[in-house]
Amino acid sequence: MSATVKPIVLVVDDDRDILAVLEARLSSIDYRVLTASGGEEALRLLKSGPVDLMISDVKMPGMGGMDLFSAAQQVRPGLPVMFLTAYGTIPDAVKAMKAGAVEYLTKPFNGRELVSKVQEVLRKSSPKQSLDSLPPLGEMFRGVKSPAMGELYELVDRIARSDVNVLLLGESGVGKERIAHLLHQRGPRREQPFMVVDCGSTPGGLLESELFGHVRGAFTHAIKDKKGLIEAADKGTLFLDEIGNISHEMQVRLLRFLEDKKIRRIGDLKEIPVNCRVISATNADLREEVASGSFREDLYYRLRVVTLKIPPLRERREDIPGLAQYFVENFCKTHDLPQVKLPAETTRWVSEYPWPGNVRELKNALEGGVVLCRDGVLHKSDLCLSGLPEEALRKGRAMSGETSALSLEESERNAILRALEQAGFVQKEAANLLGISRRAIHYKIKKYGIDCGKRSNKSEEDD
């Protein structure tokens, strides 16, 4: 989907097992990995092509890590270098840091810590791309074919550099937060915080404190001062998701902030100036709520200086094949699985299905399918589509032209059976694989008449 160039990491170690582990870890996060078993081989690779980061062992036969570091700086001045070191050679790693190395890790290292430090080093060392050099979104997301999304991306490009408030409209799951991220990342505030407030899931009693913060003693359990998310978004972007769910009292407080650009923490007398861009989103019709009196008209106009509407997935079916391939490839990397093939039959089926949950539902169904599919091929029967509205299920059958033998219910039954087999018929583990509750899997097993036999007794004992 994205045209981003993969970072190139050179790993140097005389231990082949360490090389294999590092290569697997870094490849899983979409980095291109070069390996060398010694300093001389590493220098040849540095001279033959681009490298963004070198990770090297300190102690190696022949040319050691420090000698390699000095030689590498002659070949590629400023190249960031991380060292791997045993506990006994930590002084050598500290010496390397003083000489200009950017980081070191002790063996045995934690894989997540390694990935985190590599990402941080690359982020700090990469040159900041100017806004003028950013390619248009239409070029970055070439898998997007629909005119509706092409127009939306063009609008995002046009308004991202401004500071106007934006209201994003669209059904649940269409990707409103993703568009908000793009507006932030392609604007002048992109190096500053991007703070997300989920107004839909945050209880009303807590939302005020979450947004505005409080001082110690403002209410019971307020044992220390707390900075609110609006204040944390200073100089950056504040994203208010499901803005239509906030109470009338919160609407008043938010309107005052938008007008004055100042906040006051709960229990405080002091006003704090905050300069942030506000992007809000909702799946509700705010105009109807304004007409009914449940949403303030003045706040509505403050929030919707510019309005962007994100189309549902069913109205841009030509984008589904590209999205499906992108999700499948990424889930294989995330779950450390061999690449799964997406055959034309499955691509055609997912393109015709109505997807009432939009991109979020497509993404979740494909992730379950990638985990459960056999022989490296993702069939439509592998997709986990349990819990859909019956109307959507009927539409899906009609659109796919399936017979009753290949209905979505049978696909769901097969998915449950495969999950049970993979989990050794431990129903709790099978439910976790499918992303559903234990009560739901018990219901589904009974609904579809799945006879677990003696193995089901074992699962109940394990539960």
The spatial strand order of the largest sheet comes to 2-1-3-4-5
The oligomeric state of the chains shown is: single chain
Tally the helices: 21
CATH class of the largest domain: Alpha Beta
CATH architecture of the largest domain: 3-Layer(aba) Sandwich
Q: Give the amount of beta strand, in percent.
A: 5-15%
Helical content band: 40-55%
Q: What does the average pLDDT come to? A: 83
Broad structural category: alpha/beta
Main beta-sheet strand count, sense and barrel state: 5 strands, parallel
Number of domains: 3
How many beta-strand segments? Answer: 14
**Coarse morphology:** globular
The low-confidence runs, each spanning 5 or more residues with pLDDT under 50, are 386-393, 395-407, 456-463
Distance between the termini: 42 Å
CATH homologous superfamily heading of the largest domain: P-loop containing nucleotide triphosphate hydrolases
CATH topology of the largest domain: Rossmann fold
| Rg, alpha carbons | 27 Å
